[in-house]
Each structure stands twice: as structure tokens, then as C-alpha cells.
Write a structure and sequence with these properties.
Number of helices: 7
Low-confidence stretches: 1-9
CATH superfamily: HUPs
Shape: globular
Mean pLDDT: 91
Number of domains: 1
CATH architecture: 3-Layer(aba) Sandwich
Strand content: 15-25%
CATH topology: Rossmann fold
CATH class: Alpha Beta
Largest sheet: 7 strands, parallel
Helix content: 25-40%
Structural class: alpha/beta
Order of helices and strands: EEEHEHEHEHEHEEHH
Strand order of the largest sheet: 5-4-3-6-7-9-8
């Protein structure tokens, strides 16, 4: 059930979505989003494991294994819930289609936001029907080490500046259309690096929750 109002503040709750392959999920996913949630005042973040990511190599772990790792990572964290609609598809996971399905559920007036990293913002012009994203949701952007806050072309920079807000307040006052660049921890952690470290027998304890490390070991993943 998606709740659309915050009774204590009598203002709309922002429904925030965060998608990813999560192969595996790690602190580089979780900690920036937790910091973002504090900045913006998010009460809940919905994690969306991808089934067939259109822009990258296919995951090494199975959909069920990746889903299990996501559940393990957030089982004791009330900020996060998990939605499996993308895993149930047999076609590429296009963000625009997922956002449209959520918009239909929450209605036209409810604030809806999609969380991405600065790296994704830099390449967002390559996404399927990317120009429609802000017609459906806000974009909340987490900092990423090594990525500039300026976009690559004058046209893309103009698009950013037309939609950017400097404070989170407007995000709950409109259902879609804004971009907010958050100040989140710069954690240089990648799933690719974690998989490579596992192949080399290196320790990953500081990169992901113990429950995920234990699951990877038990399933003999990434070896």
C-alpha cells in the first residue's frame, strides 16, 4: 500500500524509487541513499532490482539471488522496502515504463521521485525516452566520486538548469519536474570491484553488509 499523505505534517509524502542491478547490493548503494533521505525528508525508499538492464552486461547472480541479497541488506532498515515488478518482466527494464506504472498507482498529484547517481545523470540522454522522465517524476541525484556536476554539452546543462532546485522543499509541493543534486557521501565502491575482489580472494567486509557477505559465501557467488 502506497500512502500519499503525511498526517503529522499534512503534506504529501514523496514516493522515492531507487533501481539497480544490485549484483551485489553494497554500501555504495545504501549509504548515499540514506544520506539523501535525511536531506530530502524521505520516509521510505523503494528498491527496484532490475531484471534485464538495457545499458550494461547481464548480472552474474540470478534474479532470485539478487533479490535475496536486497532483502537481506535492508531487512532491519525501515527506510527501505523492495518492489519486484521489474524482476517479473522478461523484457528490458526501461525506467520510463516502471515510473509510468508507479504514477498510475499513486495518482497524478502525489510527488514521485527517482534516485540516480551523478554518473547516470551524465549519461541520461542515452536512456529510453529520457525526455519524458520529468513529466512523470523528480530526479534526486546522489554524488559520485570522479563525476563532474556540469553536464557534457551546453544543451544538457541548460536542461539541468531549467529544472534544478537548490533546496528539497519544492519536491513535495509538485508531483514531478524537478532535479535536486544532493550532497551525499562519496563512496568509491562498485559491484564490479566487489566481484573482482571475490575472484581474487580479497576481503570485502568494508564494502557491503555482513549478511550479504555471508550469502555470497554460502552461494559461492563471484568465485
Amino acid at each position: 500500500m502506497l500512502h500519499t499523505t503525511n498526517s503529522s505534517l499534512n503534506s504529501p509524502i514523496i514516493h522515492a524509487l531507487f533501481g539497480g542491478t544490485f549484483d551485489p547490493i553494497h554500501y555504495g548503494h545504501l549509504r548515499p541513499v540514506e544520506a539523501l533521505a535525511k536531506q530530502v525528508g524521505l520516509k521510505q525508499v523503494i528498491l527496484l532490482p532490475n531484471h534485464v538492464p538495457p545499458h550494461r552486461l547481464q548480472p552474474e547472480a540470478s534474479p532470485q539471488q539478487r533479490l535475496e541479497m536486497v532483502h537481506l541488506a535492508v531487512q532491519d532498515n525501515p527506510l527501505f522496502t523492495v518492489d519486484t515488478r521489474e524482476l517479473q518482466r522478461q523484457t528490458p527494464s526501461y525506467t520510463i515504463e516502471t515510473l509510468k506504472s508507479f504514477r498510475e498507482e499513486v495518482g497524478e498529484q502525489c510527488p514521485l521521485a527517482f534516485i540516480i547517481g551523478q554518473d547516470s545523470l551524465q549519461s541520461i540522454h542515452t536512456w529510453h525516452r529520457w525526455t519524458e522522465l520529468l513529466d512523470i517524476c523528480h530526479l534526486l541525484v546522489c554524488s559520485r566520486p570522479g563525476y563532474a556536476r556540469q553536464l557534457a554539452t551546453p544543451e544538457m546543462q541548460q536542461w539541468l538548469e531549467q529544472h534544478q532546485v537548490d533546496t528539497p522543499a519544492p519536491l513535495s509541493q509538485k508531483s514531478h519536474g524537478y532535479i535536486y543534486l544532493a550532497e551525499t557521501p562519496l563512496l568509491d565502491i562498485s559491484a564490479t570491484d566487489i566481484r573482482q575482489r571475490h575472484q581474487q580472494g580479497l576481503n570485502c567486509d568494508d564494502l557491503l553488509p555482513p549478511s550479504i557477505q555471508n550469502y555470497i559465501d554460502s552461494q559461492k557467488l563471484y568465485s
